[in-house]
What we know:
With 197 residues, this protein is an alpha+beta fold. The chain has helices spanning 6-26, 39-50, 58-63, 113-122, 128-143, 157-160, 183-194, and strands at 66-68, 76-87, 93-103, 107-109, 125-126, 147-156, 171-176. It folds into two domains: 6-50, GTP Cyclohydrolase I, Chain A, domain 1 (Orthogonal Bundle), CATH 1.10.286.10; 58-194, 2-Layer Sandwich (GTP Cyclohydrolase I, domain 2), CATH 3.30.1130. It has seven helices and seven strands. Guanosine-5'-triphosphate binds next to helix 5 and helix 6.
Amino acid sequence: MEKLSEEQMLQNRDALATHYQEILGLLGEDVNREGLIKTPMRVAKAMQYLTKGYHEDPAAVLRSAMFEEEDYKQMVIVKDIDFFSLCEHHMLPFFGKAHVAYIPKKYITGLSKIPRVVDIFARRLQIQERLTMQIKDCIQQTLDPLGVMVVIEAQHMCMQMRGVEKQNSLTTTSDFTGFFQQAKTREEFMNLIKNNR
Ligand SMILES: Nc1nc2c(ncn2[C@@H]2O[C@H](COP(=O)(O)OP(=O)(O)OP(=O)(O)O)[C@@H](O)[C@H]2O)c(=O)[nH]1
Ligand SMILES: [Zn+2]
């Protein structure tokens, strides 16, 4: 999705607020009660923030700090990247940690760019599996490394607050390319993200 102009963003925000006011009424609230007067606009703003990844380009973020580095051929790991996303089934939060590793071929990227890519994909309506794959694909296609692996551990509010109501279940997903097809390489990564907890 393309970047929205400031004007379009504000127009959408107004329209969202109108709908949220109706939703509050349908939920049985008095929309004119003092504490709720500004709520539709607050929710509209919050939802635009939580889905702003639709209007951001993760590959461009990686390319903005991409450096040639011919000699380093070991794993680069950024672990424990906190993220918050919304599940596309219930629009309830799921959140946790992402761990990313890649083995450079010719290019490395600025370290902060990896969590930025995670955030851009997380701030959309998601499922955990697709979030995992999109981060992997973006890094593979942009940096063209020898391999990339992404592991995500998350809790889903739709499984905790409602539905099956399991408070302690953690969902783990992973995806990888290239050198990570070797079990030994995956093991090295898994061991490194397990330590120092
Ligand atoms: N695979 C996957 N499933 C998810 C994710 N987030 C939520 N879900 C699941 O999506 C499913 C939707 O199933 P439905 O039966 O259509 O929805 P539901 O009636 O609300 O299901 P319950 O949550 O079991 O009450 C549920 O099993 C959720 O747990 C995710 O990131 N990945
Ligand atoms: Zn859900």
